[in-house]
Amino acid sequence: VNGFNVGRDYSFGVYESATKTLVNFGDIQDFKVEKQSHNVVSRPYNGVPRFGYVPDGYKGTFTIVRTGVALENLQIQLDALFNTGSVIPPGYINETITNPDGTVSRFQFVGVMFVVKEDASGSREKEVKVSVEWMASDKVVLA
């Protein structure tokens, strides 16, 4: 609308490698993506200080209106795999953004691990919400 991004321009697809399935996160209400880094500093006695940062992946959250049991079942399955000593390989999240000029940008978060953090919250007058946290090793451009 009028050159703004108004929240309907993002879509996400999640691939979970341990179960080899595309995960339907249902009705994503809001999301947060944060670039992670840690600082590198050199403060020599005989010169000016130098600063930099080391890229350290991404982390994010989704708040989802519960539309079914798929997320709970997936988390239980992943917990069971972990508890039996199975390897849980990372998956990926595809991010598609419709830009204000009409172009479409596509990115992929790779090396993704996620957890259902808040299993349910709600009240009598509100929908039930689920919260998912995730971390990713990197973000690459798809298109």
Structural summary, described in words:
By secondary structure, the protein is mostly beta strands. It has one helix and eight strands. It has one helix at 70-83, and strands spanning 10-16, 21-23, 27-42, 50-65, 91-98, 104-121, 129-136, 138-141. Strands 1, 2, 3, 4, 5, 6, 7 and 8 form an eight-stranded antiparallel sheet that branches. The mean pLDDT is 87.
Strand content: over 45%
Large-scale geometry: globular
Q: Which secondary-structure class do the elements indicate? A: mainly beta
**Total beta strands:** 8
Question: What is the count of DSSP helices, taking H or I runs of 4+ residues?
Answer: 1
Distance from N terminus to C terminus (CA atoms, Å) equals: 23 Å
- Gyration radius, rounded: 19 Å
User: Which whole number gives the mean pLDDT?
Assistant: 87
Q: What is the ordering of alpha helices and beta strands?
A: EEEEHEEEE
Helix content: under 10%
Largest sheet: 8 strands, antiparallel
Low-pLDDT runs of 5+ residues are: none
